[in-house]
């Protein structure tokens, strides 16, 4: 329902002009002065305790260093925040908006960019800590789901799909190494694999992984979906899912609600293989007592889905300066190193180690990635995200085919 509302509202605002902000990050002293005393409402997914705790730590640092109050507005779906900004623009609320900062990427970023709902291009590159960002070697920092970012959002972290298994129950030598091998393994081990039900982010990430492996020409996924090719391009994906569901957990008649639910099924011994869009997730879960210490990671040598996640500032944010200061702090070596540490979050950095001074680099080198985390060089190739329009259509088709009411 929310997506249908979002699409309709976007159409209604297509002719509205973008609103120009009053200042940029170029004059940083002015930004710092303006930010002091402001409250930043940070709309961010709130489904993980460790991430919420990290944001809470950042809030304390921002308060003590810059006099900025950061308040997390916990979301279960980022589209809710996008819809809020959209509704405010439709109502002519071009100043004093209720959303100051959004954790965002993918279709939500594409929607906000398309309709002029974001602070003007280039502000991210003006941030003082941008000089540390590894935009030269990490293409997903400048292109999000095939959409040029153009400085409309500041990178916050990296993500790449990784798989986890319990070494006490499975032989590492027999792990599947492709989507087809995973299907063959599932057929040989009925009921031991599943994925979160779309539109859950982790669940749709699995669908993208299979699609990328099964499609004959990946370049078609770089372009907006077209009706006349959708069925042909996605047929291998849905043929795969039709077969998988017959041997999946609960025979494909039910799915875990989200990643935490799927993780619990591994901990309970109901599933043997799970996955997450964070290579450090297994180590973090072990450290938190959520998974046994026999869990380990593996990947597909041919590559797995990868992207960058960002923070963005709505065009009508009430606390623009405070949001800029927050985005800059989240890019600082200290904040990025803490975020990469599995003891706190385990989210890979967007910074280049070569751009850091020795002391900052040492902070990263001292991080214990954890017993279940693959080294960056072991993750294999990063596969780029399809154009956002593909997943909108695929989620609709998945729902039509597989939900109980159908």
Brief sketch in words of this structure:
The protein has 406 residues and is α/β, with parallel strands linked by helices. The protein has helices at residues 2-12, 28-35, 49-66, 79-90, 106-114, 123-126, 179-188, 201-214, 227-247, 259-267, 281-287, 320-330, 333-340, 358-365, 388-402; strands at residues 39-45, 69-75, 101-104, 143-144, 147-148, 153-160, 162-166, 273-276, 295-298, 304-312, 382-383. It starts with a helix and ends with a helix.
Backbone structural class: alpha/beta
Q: State mean pLDDT (0 to 100 scale).
A: 92
The ordered string of helix (H) and strand (E) elements is HHEHEHEHHEEEEHHHHEHEEHHHEH
Euclidean distance between termini CA atoms: 17 Å
DSSP E strands, number: 11
The CATH topology of the largest domain is D-Maltodextrin-Binding Protein, domain 2
Model description:
The chain is α/β, with parallel strands linked by helices. The chain folds into 2 domains: 2-157 and 308-374, D-Maltodextrin-Binding Protein, domain 2, CATH 3.40.190.10; 162-306 and 384-402, Periplasmic binding protein-like II (D-Maltodextrin-Binding Protein, domain 2). Helix content is 41%, strand content 13%. The protein contains 15 helices and 11 strands. It has helices spanning 2-12, 28-35, 49-66, 79-90, 106-114, 123-126, 179-188, 201-214, 227-247, 259-267, 281-287, 320-330, 333-340, 358-365, 388-402, and strands at 39-45, 69-75, 101-104, 143-144, 147-148, 153-160, 162-166, 273-276, 295-298, 304-312, 382-383. Strands 1, 2, 3, 6, 10 and 11 form a 6-stranded mixed β-sheet that branches. Helix 1 (2-12) packs parallel to helix 4, helix 2 packs across helix 12 (320-330) and helix 7 packs parallel to helix 9. The protein starts with a helix and ends with a helix.
């Amino acid at each position: 329902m929310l997506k249908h509302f979002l699409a309709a509202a976007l159409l209604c605002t297509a002719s509205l002009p973008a609103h120009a902000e009053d200042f940029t990050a170029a004059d940083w002293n002015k930004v710092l002065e303006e930010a002091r005393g402001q409250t930043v409402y940070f709309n961010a997914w709130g489904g993980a305790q460790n991430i919420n705790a990290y944001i809470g730590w950042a809030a304390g640092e921002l308060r003590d260093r810059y006099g900025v109050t950061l308040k997390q507005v916990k979301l279960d779906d980022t589209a809710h925040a996008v819809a809020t900004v959209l509704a405010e623009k439709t109502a002519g609320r071009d100043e004093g908006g209720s959303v100051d900062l959004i954790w965002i990427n993918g279709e939500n970023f594409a929607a906000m960019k398309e309709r002029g709902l974001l602070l003007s291009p280039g502000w991210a590159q003006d941030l003082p800590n941008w000089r540390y960002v590894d935009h030269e070697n990490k293409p997903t920092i400048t292109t999000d789901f095939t959409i040029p970012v153009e400085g409309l959002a500041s990178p916050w972290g990296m993500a790449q799909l990784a798989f986890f298994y319990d070494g006490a129950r499975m032989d590492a030598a027999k792990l599947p190494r492709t989507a087809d091998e995973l299907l063959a393994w599932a057929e040989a081990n009925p009921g031991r694999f599943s994925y979160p039900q779309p539109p859950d982010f982790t669940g749709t990430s699995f669908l993208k992984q299979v699609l990328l492996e099964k499609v004959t020409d990946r370049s078609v996924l770089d372009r907006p979906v077209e009706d006349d090719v959708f069925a042909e391009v996605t047929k291998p994906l849905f043929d795969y899912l039709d077969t998988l569901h017959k041997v999946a957990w609960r025979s494909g008649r039910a799915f875990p609600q989200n990643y935490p639910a799927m993780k619990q099924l591994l901990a309970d011994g109901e599933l043997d293989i799970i996955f997450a869009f964070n290579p450090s997730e297994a180590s973090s879960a072990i450290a938190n007592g959520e998974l046994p210490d026999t869990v380990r990671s593996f990947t597909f040598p041919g590559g797995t889905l990868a992207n960058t996640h960002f923070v963005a500032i709505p065009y009508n944010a009430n606390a623009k300066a405070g949001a800029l200061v927050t985005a800059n702090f989240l890019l600082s070596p200290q904040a990025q190193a803490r975020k990469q540490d599995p003891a706190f979050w385990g989210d890979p950095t967007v910074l280049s180690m070569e751009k850091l001074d020795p002391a900052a680099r040492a902070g990263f080198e001292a991080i214990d990635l954890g017993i279940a985390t693959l080294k960056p060089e072991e993750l294999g190739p990063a596969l780029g995200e399809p154009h956002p329009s593909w997943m909108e259509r695929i989620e609709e088709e998945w729902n039509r085919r597989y939900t109980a009411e159908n």
